[in-house]
């Protein structure tokens, strides 16, 4: 893993050495893709477009947020900002990296929550826009434009997370793949016709389940908060 982490640090160095004008862009992207934006921006916009799509975005966002936390408990995952010092790499070679206000994230980093949750929650919105584009146009470019924008967005989010030293490249790739797979798998199981009681019970079950899982892992001698 050290070789993989070192390669990731060098990739972050190369990214930060790019044009200075891109710095504000990467920080803006990483802020835009914060998971909470799915609930405050993505869900309302999707709901305005179509009620079922909106509920799907909210549902998948909720499940992927929960699953991302659980995966991080088991996969752990170093954070570049901390690893570069703790590993002793800075004592072996010259490492030129910059710190930003969003660099010092704590907690395990694998997989990337920004990539996973954004990728999962936006999947139903993208497929809905693709279906709309297919009905309105015969152009293949127009039909594929929503998925093209989705792909470019996730790529930009992943690069922004590497740029600010929040994640290693392999954590970003894992997050993107997990998010797309989760969105594809859950889209057909959206409980759009369920009552409010179902969602309250589900949220409570996820909360209690995570607390129970947390207690079991701690009891097994695994320090989640390492």
TrEMBL record:
One of its GO terms (biological process) is gluconeogenesis. GO terms for cellular component: endoplasmic reticulum membrane. Its EC number is 3.1.3.9. It is found in: Endoplasmic reticulum membrane. Residues 53-187 form the Phosphatidic acid phosphatase type 2/haloperoxidase domain. Pfam families: PAP2 (PF01569). The chain crosses the membrane at residues 25-49, 56-76, 116-133, 140-162, 168-186, 198-222. It is an enzyme of class 3 (hydrolase). Keywords: Endoplasmic reticulum, Gluconeogenesis, Hydrolase, Membrane, Transmembrane, Transmembrane helix. One of its GO terms (molecular function) is glucose-6-phosphatase activity. Pathway: Carbohydrate biosynthesis; gluconeogenesis. It is a multi-pass membrane protein. Its main location: endoplasmic reticulum. Belongs to the glucose-6-phosphatase family. This is Glucose-6-phosphatase 3. It comes from Uria aalge. The gene is G6pc3.
